[in-house]
Structure formats: structure tokens, C-alpha cells
Amino acid sequence: MIRSFEKRAEQKISGFQSPAADYLEGRLDITDRLVIDPHSTFYFQMEGEDMQSFGISGGDILIVDRSLTATHGAVVVAFLAGAFSCRVFLSENSGALLKNDQDVARETEIGSLQIWGVVTSVCRNMLPKALRTGRYSNVCTL
User: For residue 83, what is the domain's CATH number?
Assistant: First the structure.
């Protein structure tokens, strides 16, 4: 269970404080946990099953930070052949490459790697299909 405590101004209390005051918690703001730099954070919806072996399924929401520099093993969104593609960034002695379940793109094949951003989190809908109706059809959970 993730708990977050709201930042509150200090209150002066006269008399006895409520025994339940130790258990008061602020609301969890999920963007505080998922978004480090709001000006550099973007969201993509994964299409296809090309990253299934890396734990990313079709329909998942990718939270992508453009301010990060890709390092070995980072899941990235790259711009390849005129389209965005989710891949794993791997560095080798011979250069860098981008890999998914279908193929590998080497730096020599695509000129220079065009890394658009680094995936920081994945949001997945866990509701069974029977509950994915109406306003719950696009619910996303971590």
C-alpha cells in the first residue's frame, strides 16, 4: 500500500489532541509519484504486442520523460521509419541498438538513434472485460 502524507501548516492546539490525529493522512496524488518533470512528461498508448516479453502489453499507457538520457537497458520511445516505436535501448561495443520482440534496429542501420524519451512507468487496465463498460472502459491502474 502506498501512503502519502499531505504537507500541512502546523496547527497550534490547546487542550488535548485527538487520539486519532496520528492516523490522519492526506490524499495520494499519483502525479507526485509518476511525473518528475511535468513539462517533459508525455503519455503514449501501446499498440501491438511487440514488447510483451518486457512486460508491456497492447493498450498499456506509457509514461515517457523526455528530459532523461537513455542508458543500457532503459525502455524508450524512439522515432523509427516515420513512426514512434517502443523499444529497449542496449549499448554494445559496436554501438547502440533498439530491441523489441520482433526485431533489432542497430545504430548503423538507422543512421543515428532518435530516442524520443525514456519510459518511466507503465499503466495497465486490470479490470475484467465484463466491467470495462461506460465510463470504466478506459480505467488505468498501476
Answer: 2.10.109.10
DSSP state at residue 1: -
50 falls within a domain: yes
pLDDT tens digits for range 108-136: 555 556 889 999 999 888 888 888 888 88
Task: Note whether residue 67 is domain-resident.
Answer: yes
CA angle, residues 127, 132, 32, in degrees to nearest 5: 60
Q: What distance lies between CA 18 and its chain's CA centroid?
A: 40
Global pTM value: 0.74
Is 132 within the bounds of a domain? Answer: no
With beta carbons less than 8 A apart as the criterion, state whether 109 and 115 touch.
Answer: no
3-state secondary structure of 131: helix
Q: List the one residue out of 64, 69, 75, 71 whose CA is nearest residue 100.
A: 75
Render pLDDT for 81-102 as a digit per residue (tens, 0 to 9).
788 899 999 988 877 889 999 8
